[in-house]
Write a structure and sequence with these properties.
Blueprint lengths: L1 H7 L3 E4 L5 H8 L7 H8 L5 H9 L2 H4 L5 E4 L4 H21 L7 H8 E5 L3 H5 L9 E3 L13 H8 L5 H7 L1
Parallel strand pairs: 1-2, 2-3, 3-4
Helix pairs in contact: 6-7
């Protein structure tokens, strides 16, 4: 499937809210009914981590280096820790576990992973740690998490102090 995807599509996209129903119900059953929606919304930002790590550590990006994926709605701040922890784990535990990667995990993120964000001031402020080329703002309209109709004001606030060149890349 990966060679075909790499040939046919420029990128593969998965929304942060993408999950199977059984997994969602398992987590939802751990909380009160009235807080299920909040819990689901709050936990959405951690969902992209597993599939990206699986693609990376299974060697998919080594075998298909032109493959690009988009992590939609996942924000970008988590990517900074993901890269740092991935590099640390690969350096520290990779040899013991005989993990074979051609590059450091952070390099795969910079080369193969695009990520979208709505409101993520901390991710924007730490943008240099993951680069700005693959980080893309989105409004998520018409969903309830959307920045619409206040997108302009929100972006003015969250990009305050950011150089215009970085702002233009990310917006």
């Amino acid at each position: 499937a990966w060679p075909t995807l790499q040939q046919i599509f420029d990128d593969v996209s998965a929304a942060a809210g993408s999950t199977d129903r059984a997994e969602m119900l398992k987590y939802a059953s751990a909380v009160r009914d009235e807080s299920t929606a909040f819990f689901t919304d709050f936990s959405t930002s951690v969902k992209p981590r597993r599939p990206i790590a699986q693609l990376m550590f299974s060697g998919v990006f080594d075998r298909f280096p032109k493959l690009k994926i988009v992590s939609g709605e996942g924000r970008i701040g988590w990517l900074i820790h993901f890269c740092e922890r991935g590099d640390h784990s690969f350096h520290r535990h990779g040899p013991q576990q005989e993990v074979k990667l051609e590059r450091m995990p952070s390099e795969y993120v910079r080369e193969n992973v695009y990520s979208t964000f709505l409101e993520d001031r901390s991710g924007i402020l730490m943008r240099e740690l993951i680069g700005t080329d693959n980080q893309m703002w989105s409004s998520d309209y018409p969903h309830s998490d959307s920045t619409w109709p206040d997108s302009g004001a929100i972006n003015d606030r969250q990009f305050q102090g950011v150089p215009e060149a970085d702002k233009r890349k990310m917006l």
